[in-house]
Structure formats: C-alpha cells, structure tokens
Amino acid sequence: MTAMGHVGNRDPLTSQLYTLKHKLQESAPVTAARISPNGTHLALSTSTSIKIYSLTSSTAPSPPVLICELRGHTRGISDVQFSPHNPEILASCSDDTTIKLWNVPTAKCIKTLRKHTYHATTLQFAHRGNLLVSGSSDETITIWDLISGRPLTTLAAHADPISSISITPDDSIIISASYDGLIRLFDTETYQCLKTLTTNSSHGTATSSLARMDMHAVGYVVVSPNGKYVLSLCFDGCLRLWDFVANRVVKTFVGPERTKSPETQSGAAGEDQEKASDEMEKRIDRTTTTTTKTAAITPICEKYNCEARFITYGSNALIVSGSDYSGILCWDIKSKNLVWRHRDGDRGHNDVDDNNDDTGKSSPVLTLDTFDEGRVLVSGSLDGVVHIFEMNREPPKNGSHDEGVGEVKTGGDVVNGGDSTMNGSGANEHPERDSEMNGQTSERAELADDSHDDKDYMNGVAEDT
C-alpha cells in the first residue's frame, strides 16, 4: 500500500460536496471496500487477500494504517461485508466458491461455508446479524444460519450468474440482480419469489413479463434506507430508482454529457441533465444496446459491476455511484441533476472521446461504501486506487439549478427513515409466485406508509415525465 497526497482535479464539481482526505494505492484491483459499522476499520479486498486498515479521526493528517491482512481464499475475492452488529466479524466470498467468516482482531478464519458450485459473487448480512445471504455464478442464492454454519435453503433464483444482493431493512425481502436482466424479490420466511422486475419497451415502467428478450444485464442493486425503493445499475448505462411495490421505475439517472471540454462537461450538472436523462431513456426504449455508445451521454456502466449508495447525511437526498469511465458520480434524487463528480486528476481528460478511444478515461470505480449516512465516502478502482472523502459541513449550493444540494426536500418518502447500512439450468420463472404481488400489494411487501398521500409522495420522488 502506498499513501498518496491530494491530487488536483480540473472538474469544478469536485470541490463542492466532498473533500478528499486520503488516497491509497494498492497493487491489485480493489473489488470491495467496506467501512465497519462503528467507522473504525476499512476492509479492502484485493486479489486473494483482504487488507484491514484502522480509520482514525477524519481530521487527522495521517493516512489509514494497515493493521492486518486476511489470507485463506485461493482465488479472487468478489465481496466482503462486516457484520452489522459485531464489527469484529467480517464475511468474504470468492471465486474459489467458498464463503469465509473472519475474526478481525485475531486475523483468523473462524468458519468456512461451502455450498456453491461456482464462483461466489456477492453476499449480505441480514440486519439482525443472524443470517447471511450469498449469490453465485451457479445462479443460486443461499441463505446461511451463522450459528450452525449450515445453509437453511438454496434458491434457484436466476438463469444467469447473480451479480448483486440487497436486503430490506426489516429483513423481510431479499432483492437479487442477475446478468439475465432480472431483479427478483424473495420472501425470507417462505423463500417464495414475490416479484420479478424488468424494464420493457414502455418508458419508465416495469413488468413481470419475460417476453422481452433484449433485457440488459443488471450489475448491482441496493435498497433505500426506508425499504421502499430499489436502486439498480444496468449495463445499458443507466441507473434506475424503482418503486417495487408499485412495480415501476420512478427515476432514471444518466452519466455526464460526452464533451471534450471539462468546463462544458460540468454543465451537465445543470438543468440540461434532467432533459438528458429523459432523452437517454427514450433512446434506450427505441433502439438496441449499442445506442448508449453513440449517444451524447457517457454510460454510467456497461462492462463492470459498479456499486451505488444512497446519501442522506444532513438535509441531503443524493445517490452516488461508481462508473466505467467518469469516476465517481453523484446526483440529486429530486432533480436528477449531476451535482458532484470526482475523477483522478493524474489521468488527464477522462471521458470517452468521440471515437470511443479509452486511452484517456478514468479507471473504472468498482466499489463504494459510506459511513454515517454518507458523511464519509470510500471508493476503490480497477487500478487499485482507494479514495477516502468527507462531506463538507455546509455543502455549497449548486448554481446550475434552483435548489442547492443542501436544500433537497424528500417529504420523508425516498431514502429517509432507516439505517443506511446494507450488495440456465434449474432456474425457475415462478409465474405463479410472481402473481402474488402483481395487481395487488402483498402484506409483507407493503413497506410504504399508507399515511402518505399523493402530494407528499410527489414531494419525495416525482415520477419521470
């Protein structure tokens, strides 16, 4: 690990929301970066090992200190997660098909879980901490009892490798994403598939029908802190906010405009960004996958499983995401405007040029995590660079639109009201199970507060128009 000083960035959006506190350089791609629930440790998975750093006060001049390295996996590590109730316990999954539980203070593996038959790709602790859920390239989801170390059940969930898993704050629903283009919701008590979400040719809608065959792979999903919305990153280059109870996409976020001038690029954070978002969605609806490569909008991700998070610190209501080409991107949820971005200034102009030449682009930002509702942000990249940011105490207003970042009003509907800590053969389509939630709202999926009327809802998330 090499600690590096602050690096300048020509993008004027860089200094508005977060301040870069520390920059680390690892020798291998960082596939997962996680902050412990108490904010004292940072776990980085690189190749076949996990590095644990101590995080001192954000105002301290010294960088994070490496305190131990966890070794035991024989192939690449895909994901790591701290236990939500015991920051001394860490779980990891790997291409060697195993899941390991680690005691961080002793740097020892305390348990190895074996069930998957192919790469273990993603995992999440239940918020109560008693269960662990894992996804795999073998197209299954396994739910583990952490006391016994045995699987409670294995779900034949998808028809392609599972890319991401999230769990609602009340631990009632598991949400999975896959390269088959589907997002599925499973009941944690009955293990039944409650619903299958996928976009169709109708702008901004979702459906349980699998008739549309040109679905884009879904690389990542994360549920909102209040459990009412799901954020998904698809390989069509867009990020979508789903009201999964109502079975619809309520917001679509797109990357920055593809221009040669960084000053012109920053203009995408203004009023034109919302128009660009709507236009991109229309292009996706009427064309094929190649559209995003030739449009004026740089795709958020179309190759890597970049991660995203909700930011609710202070009065903010934001979404932050990694990307293939544009570094770290952050949007205002209400306006869909791009309000902050960070790209490594050492790499020069970082956008894809008109000829799709990748020479000057930013290294893909693969992983993100937050602490204290987004006050602290950490990112990890394909080139091994790790950034640690802290939010400015009073983020300045974004002059490109009427409401500043600190003035976003959510009406309590979008992301507030919960803890922000949360990523072929044998696959069942479950048409009879999907019907349980189609056309009606199941009791277990009724996460929205019935007291919110339409006016309050619109104050939180106005639908795409």
Automatic annotation (TrEMBL):
WD repeat positions in this chain? Answer: 70-112, 113-154, 155-196, 211-252
Instruction: Return the annotated region ranges for Disordered.
Output: 257-281, 346-365, 393-465
Compositionally biased residues, Basic and acidic residues: 272-281, 393-406, 443-457
Which key words are in the record? Repeat, WD repeat
- The organism's superkingdom is given as Eukaryota
For this protein, the record's PROSITE patterns field holds: WD_REPEATS_1, WD_REPEATS_2, WD_REPEATS_REGION
Q: What is this protein called?
A: WD40 repeat-like protein
